[in-house]
Amino acid sequence: MKKNRQPKQYPRLTHPLVRDANGQLRQASWEEALERAAAGFRRTRDAYGPDAFAMLSCARATNEMNYVAQKFTRVVMGTNNVDSCNRTCHAPSVAGLSAVFGSGGGTSSYEEVEHTDVILMWGSNARFAHPIFFQHVLKGIRNGARMYAVDPRRTSTAQWAESWLGLNVGTDIPLAHAIGREIIHAGLVNRAFVDRATTGYEAYAELVEPWTLSAAERVTGVPAAAIRELAHAYASAERAQLCWTLGITEHHNGTDNVRALINLSLLTGHVGRRGAGVQPLRGQNNVQGGGDMGAIPNKLPGFQDILDTEARTKFETTWQTVIQPRYGMTLTEMFEGMEHGTLKAVYCIGENPAQSEADSEQAARRLAALDHLVVQDIFLTKTAQMADVVLPATAAWAETDGTTTNSERRVQRVRAALKPPGEAREDTDIICAIAQLLGHNWKFTDSEEVWNELRALSPDHYGMTYDRLEEHQGLQWPCPSEQELPSSFLHARLWETDPERRGPAAEFGLVQHDPPVDLTDDDYPLRLTTGRRLDSYNTGVQSGSYASPLRRGEYIELCPEDAERLGVARGEEVRVVSRRGAVTAPAWIDPALRPGLAFMTMHFPDEVDTNQLTIEANCPIAGTAEFKASAVRVEKLAVAAVRS
Predict the structure, then answer these.
(1) Separation of alpha carbons 147 and 257, rounded Å
(2) What is the pLDDT of residues 73-100, one digit of tens each?
(3) Greatest Cα pair distance in the chain
(4) Would you say 247 and 628 are in contact if contact means Cβ atoms under 8 Å apart?
(5) pTM of this prediction?
(6) Cα(456)–Cα(450) distance, rounded to whole angstroms?
(7) Which of 151, 286, 598, 631 could form an S-S bond across to 404 if both were Cys, CB 3.0 to 4.6 Å?
């Protein structure tokens, strides 16, 4: 029997909804919905204190919305409990880059990859997950750059590579250490840069010494000759770009993985120069900007630390409030707070954690335990269906004025091209209306007024007026001057000979190999890794309403050898089981996979909820879960069904 292969289509929200006495969502006036939302937040704050509240901000909405959302959290509710799906994907990148360079952004512009000599794509199927960036990669290849791909799968991206290093899932650190050791032993270290601009080299050299090429081959599965070739190509290049995505970050030791890759750039001096840098590729249009605007629990807008008294005082003066001198909860800690009953109310804007979190069944159960859940979105997502109040917002990419920031740190204008349907309202207008009901009379005449308030508080954004953003078709931060144009790359200071101009040294990260938490064994012999496909987007809420000739629904992808061993045919429905749950999905035979490795996406959770299988094993530094390394088994069904 065929099953529906198309993703569920979610209705556009056009009117506010509130939950009635019978537990059903019903249409309400804006006045009633806003009163209900505000009353729940007030009740929570008065009964349990400000830290019983949390804000989930949106990586797809504008910078202006994220700025107002975090301001609401800190000023109106009095807590630093604000975070977003940045925690789910690239928080380890921010943590690793900040620890080494003092800044959490990628160091280069997209255009620079067109004019580099070596492109190292590590844990990134950019052709599917970042197709716009990959066009720059293709230009670089056409201009003579050699591309190397490090990935457990021979992805569509890897097919363009000069060499593909198919490592075992969770062995990125041993591979990086072996590359570093080979660079050292081959005499390819940029000693002038290392001695002048870094610290910790001797300890790093000692750390990687045991990771010989043969030792790394045994652990990673990558042939020693391929490791040596990559090490020499990367270190010998005049300029090299090292790019990574969620294949590096979505591990229980994601921050350590990032540090291991940054070590290679420090070792070779491939950072702080045009065409040479490290680049985490962000998958959503404003996941970089959300963090930049302070929609994270440890930073105020403009990357200013909550614990910095001077920075905090500046914001307190402007906002006329007192900011807690301590970090708030991360998204991971928020869900733990729901479990323990200490987090009572959540204001969720444009996020769908009921389906996007690891171990999704547990996530939904925790959300259901809240006293008060307000969801502000453009679709009636599964998370919105659980809410006490649902507020219809505008689509940031088509119905809103403002700015967004991409993963090359470029701030760009977005403009409303369509009128929102029904009674849908601007995100910032909704937040300000709730703030007013809670005693804060905020008046922003337009998005530019919000942006100018941000500019006055963030030196790195000060030079980015709306007029200049339009004139230059976007500007990259840091941009402190209204007269000068910013550099396309970061950390040129590291090449200064004057120590005072050079500033803080970049520190090598001393990180150890730590295998995946969810071990494979006889009961769960397959390693499941997850990722994206070109035709769909995240949990499918936005992309599911649009047809694509590429879309074939969700499958579990197996290599031919595993499929033959299991007696599974292409299209046959099978049961996929982990230690947390089970789903039924058809099988797809993919020769790009190696024996023991399976692949699925999160794009079709209503048909196949892949995140029921994934494990909530979190990076202790960044809080990101290990989506990339679950242990599963595949079971044949008693009566096999085949999808055409």
Answers:
(1) 20
(2) 999 999 999 998 778 788 899 999 999 9
(3) 73
(4) yes
(5) 0.94
(6) 10
(7) 286
